[in-house]
Design brief:
Length: about 100
């Protein structure tokens, strides 16, 4: 009876050790893959999501500023169009002989 118990105990230890080794191998593979992916992405000059969001916010602000300026220009052009045109009052110079 004692020998069967010892057999199952040894088998249990072996399975636990195998599970531990498999788990360690998995985490090592994940670490290696993540570092490889980081290097791969860095070599391609890709941007992070935070950088992308910052540039999108800047471009949205620039579009809004352009629209505001366009509106101001349209108002100023309308005011200029309403004013009567002034004639040049320069005296004509006599041609030199």
């Amino acid at each position: 009876m004692q020998s069967q118990n010892k057999f199952f105990e040894d088998l249990s230890k072996l399975m636990n050790n195998a599970a531990y080794v498999a788990n360690e191998a998995k985490s090592e593979a994940e670490t290696a893959f993540n570092s490889w992916m980081d290097r791969f992405l860095a070599q391609r000059n890709l941007v992070t999501r935070d950088e992308f969001d910052a540039v999108m916010a800047m471009s949205q602000k620039a579009r809004e500023e352009n629209e505001a300026l366009r509106s101001r220009i349209e108002v100023l052009e309308a005011e200029v169009a309403k004013k009567p045109k002034r004639r040049a009052t320069r005296a004509k110079q006599a041609p030199k002989a």
